[in-house]
Design brief:
By secondary structure, this protein is α/β, with parallel strands linked by helices. The protein is about 20% helix and about 30% strand.
Length: about 300
């Protein structure tokens, strides 16, 4: 299962009970933190998400509302006696920033941080169940989007058919990959007699701060769930463009071009108290749209 919990959905300034950008992506018990705005640790505690379960953190860019919560989280992990290694993926300079903060505080963490500088588009991390890719977005400074792809075997074991077949469990993985079974005597059992079609892998795309940038659609094509920033309503398009941000209409246009299944809007400007117009504006172009709500876990 692939799911996304929104911790913060606002832009630079916390307002209207909304908070700076942060979200947790979950896949089969693994948890990945995407951006870490101010107050992220408190939001995780509020929603009962354990920071020590996070082994991979992805920072889209080095504007404060996307990473100012990170130093506090790292030191708190240390105070809570984290021992597992932690992997952080980000644009350059983040390692220097964190190391300077630890140095001036004369702080030593009881775990190792592996900093991975994102330099190009493509696969940046991989676990047993998921592949994470980076792609470029267009902001005032270097900024990245992230694509989470499930790994799924093309076939699933048919328990009703495999019982009594005397096929060793060690061969199940090959069956899931589509291979026929050949016994020691040379008898062949066709794969389709032992397996059924597997689940289709799901994908989640996270588009961080960006002006309307059509190449994004190619990178997130057919995403099951697409999160795209929508800082302003389209009546303020000129302001959005000048600040390298998008409108709800822009986000919907990308979702439509990408043939996404569902669009989540986020990164709302604090000038907006009520967000109903964001959803209405986007739905005119892309119907399956929702404004990201903090604390909600969206199943991909």
């Amino acid at each position: 299962m692939l799911a996304v919990t929104i911790l913060g959905s606002n832009s630079a300034v916390p307002a209207h009970n909304r908070h700076p950008t942060a979200q947790v992506v979950q896949s089969n018990g693994q948890k990945f933190l995407v951006d870490c705005g101010e107050g992220t640790l408190l939001r995780m505690m509020h929603f009962k998400i354990k920071p020590l379960k996070i082994d991979h953190i992805f920072i889209s860019h080095l504007h404060g509302d996307h990473y100012f919560g990170l130093p506090g989280m790292l030191t708190t992990m240390g105070l809570n006696q984290r021992s597992k290694d932690l992997h952080i993926y980000s644009p350059k300079y983040l390692e220097e920033i964190i190391e300077l903060q630890l140095k001036v505080a004369n702080a030593t963490l009881p775990y190792k941080i592996h900093f991975h500088t994102i330099e190009d588009e493509g696969v940046i991390a991989e676990t047993k169940d998921i592949i994470i890719e980076s792609f470029k977005v267009k902001h005032r400074i270097e900024c990245w989007g992230f694509l989470f792809r499930e790994k799924k075997n093309p076939r699933k074991i048919d328990e009703s058919q495999i019982m009594g077949s005397q096929i060793p469990v060690t061969f199940y993985e090959k069956l899931q990959a589509g291979e026929d079974f050949i016994s020691s005597s040379g008898n062949i059992i066709a794969n389709h007699l032992l397996t059924v079609t597997g689940d289709i892998p799901k994908t989640y795309a996270y588009c961080a701060d960006t002006v309307y940038f059509e190449p994004i659609a190619d990178k997130v094509m057919n995403a099951d769930l697409l999160y795209h920033e929508s800082t302003y309503l389209h009546e303020l398009e000129e302001k959005a463009v000048s600040r390298f941000h998008s409108t709800a209409k822009h986000a919907a246009m990308i979702a439509r071009k990408a043939n996404a299944k569902k669009l989540l809007l986020g990164h709302f400007s604090s000038m907006y108290d009520v967000l109903d117009d964001f959803q209405s504006e986007a739905e005119e172009i892309f119907e399956n749209t929702e404004c990201a709500k903090e604390g909600v876990c969206y199943i991909v």
